[in-house]
Design goal:
Helix content: under 10%
Largest sheet: 6 strands, mixed
Strand content: 25-35%
Order of helices and strands: HHEHEEEEEEEEEEEHEEEEEEE
Number of helices: 4
Shape: globular
Number of strands: 19
Strand order of the largest sheet: 8-7-2-1-11-12
């Protein structure tokens, strides 16, 4: 399904050998899990909600949650089902990689075959790009460190991230990040969970900007619980996912950092609205006349292929409630947009 939308990447034997060699010489080796579900994206520096947004969300969220806006309210991570079968995650645990006491147990959640899901500790879609995420764990269990926790001399923060385990304790996947600074290496003031590490993890690259997620590249050969531990397979996202253009990431979608770029002239010149939509969607382009529009559901299934539009407007009234991917095609370019259909 991913190939339907984004095309199949080509990778040669040299790259595969390089990845294998990189893994074998890595001096920081965390456990390699069973890999039915893998971690594919983190957003640890999101846009903070406004006080008004937070106040509106608090009654629906757990007691004891922070009442002043912070990034913990809107941070999230993404997972992917690597198998052709639905995976029942009931009773699985999510452990904060930098604080083993912060553990959430998944009460009830099934991840469909070959699909993505986004987990967060707080339900506040107005501060999360307008997206309703798939599962909400215990608030701040896990909670993510920012780059500032690692960048300065003397920083002792251990690599952060998420550890996913089955109900019987079997490791499924874990991905830890530290931005590669390694200031905690050899620092005996660091916690005992990481002060014996010999080198930095290196995920993601140093020098991120706020409100930008980092993600595993959408290459089938690295979308497993071994290769998603390698720094060279992680990049910063470039796709804006909220209507105001504040945040970059691909929550719940294939992690394509190059198909659509905010610097791309077609991306900058194409507007799809309204969002949310109910009956019709308009496409406004300052670059070229669109040749067609494809509409996919969140799992990558083609729902509609529009080849003829009336004044660059097309009907979506038959679509069910939910998030959809709009692919606007031009002669030699395509632009991707996400639109929520509401009834």
């Amino acid at each position: 399904m991913v190939d339907q939308l984004f095309g199949q990447p080509k990778y040669n034997i040299m790259r595969l050998n390089f990845l294998l060699a990189s893994f074998l010489i890595a001096s920081v080796a965390f456990g390699q899990g069973t890999g039915e579900v893998i971690i594919t994206e983190y957003h640890n520096r999101p846009l903070k909600p406004s006080q008004e947004q937070l106040d509106a969300a608090l009654p629906n969220n757990p007691g004891g949650a922070d009442t002043s806006p912070n990034e913990g309210h809107t941070e999230w991570f993404e997972i992917y089902n690597t198998t052709n079968q639905d995976v029942v995650m009931d009773g699985w645990t999510l452990t904060d990689a930098s604080s083993s006491s912060n553990v959430s147990t998944i009460t009830s959640f099934t991840l469909p075959a070959n699909s993505y899901a986004v987990f967060s500790g707080f339900n506040i879609p107005e501060g999360q790009g307008g997206i309703v995420f798939d599962y909400f764990y215990d608030y701040k269990k896990p909670s993510f460190n920012n780059e500032s926790s690692y960048a300065d001399a003397g920083d002792t923060s251990c690599p952060d991230g998420v550890i996913i385990e089955k109900a019987d304790g079997t490791l499924v996947d874990e991905v830890r990040y530290d931005y590669g600074y390694g200031e905690y290496i050899g620092n005996m003031d660091a916690s005992s969970s990481c002060n014996m590490n010999a080198s930095a993890v290196g995920i993601p690259p140093q020098g991120s900007s706020s409100k930008t997620s980092f993600m595993l590249i959408a290459d089938p050969s690295v979308m497993n619980s071994t290769d998603n531990d390698l720094a060279e397979n992680w990049v910063f996202s470039t796709l804006v996912y909220d209507e105001e253009g504040n945040q970059k990431g691909t929550p719940g979608l294939p992690n394509d950092a190059t198909t659509v770029s905010v610097e791309n002239i077609f991306d900058a010149g194409v507007k799809v609205y309204p969002n949310p939509a109910a009956d019709f969607i308009n496409v406004e382009s300052t670059v070229q006349q669109p040749t067609s529009v494809e509409i996919y559901n969140i799992l990558g299934k083609l729902m509609t292929n529009v080849v003829s539009m009336d004044n660059n407007r097309f009907d979506v009234s038959e679509l069910e409630f939910g998030m959809y991917i709009i692919k606007v095609n031009f002669d030699n370019e395509s632009v991707i947009r996400k639109v929520m259909i509401q009834k």
